[in-house]
Amino acid sequence: MEYKRSTIIDNKMKYGSYYDQHFKSALIHQIKLVLLGVVTLGFAYPWILCKEQEAKCEHTVICGQRLKFIGDPKELIGHWIVWWLVIVITFGIYGLVVKIKFQQWVAANTVFENIELK
C-alpha cells in the first residue's frame, strides 16, 4: 500500500497556502471574545464577528499572500440592525438569507495584505 500525503501538506508546498495560528493563541482569543459577548449581553456581537475575521485573515496565507480583513464594525452594526428588522418582519424567513449576506460582506472586506487601499 502506497502512502499518500495529505492535501494540506501538498498544497502548502505547491501553492504556499496555509493557516498559521496556534491552538493556545486561538483559545485565548476565543475566550476573550466570549467574555466580551457575555459582559455586553451580546450587543458587541457584530464587533466580535469582525475581530474573529481579522484573526482568521491575519493567520491565513493564500498562494504566498497573507489576507487582511478591512471590515468596519460600525458598518456591520448598520447591516446587522437592518437584517434583524427584516428577520422580525418576515417571521424569521430572512434569517436564511443573512448567513449569505454576512459571507458576502466578509468577502467584500477581505483583501491581500500587500494591496494598496484607495
Mind explaining what this structure looks like?
With 118 residues, the protein is an alpha+beta fold. It has five helices and four strands; from the N terminus they run H-E-H-H-E-E-H-H-E. The chain has a four-stranded antiparallel sheet. The model has no long low-confidence stretch (mean pLDDT 91).
Low-confidence stretches: none
Beta-strand content bin: 5-15%
Biggest β-sheet description: 4 strands, antiparallel
Q: What string gives the helices and strands in order?
A: HEHHEEHHE
Over the alpha carbons, how many angstroms does the gyration radius reach? 18 Å
Mean pLDDT across all amino acids: 91
Structural class: alpha+beta
Helix content: 55-70%
Distance between the termini: 54 Å
How many independent structural domains?
1
Write down how many β-strands occur, each being a DSSP E stretch of 2 or more residues.
4
List the strand order in the largest sheet. Answer: 1-2-3-4
Can you tell me the overall shape? globular
Tally of alpha and pi helices: 5
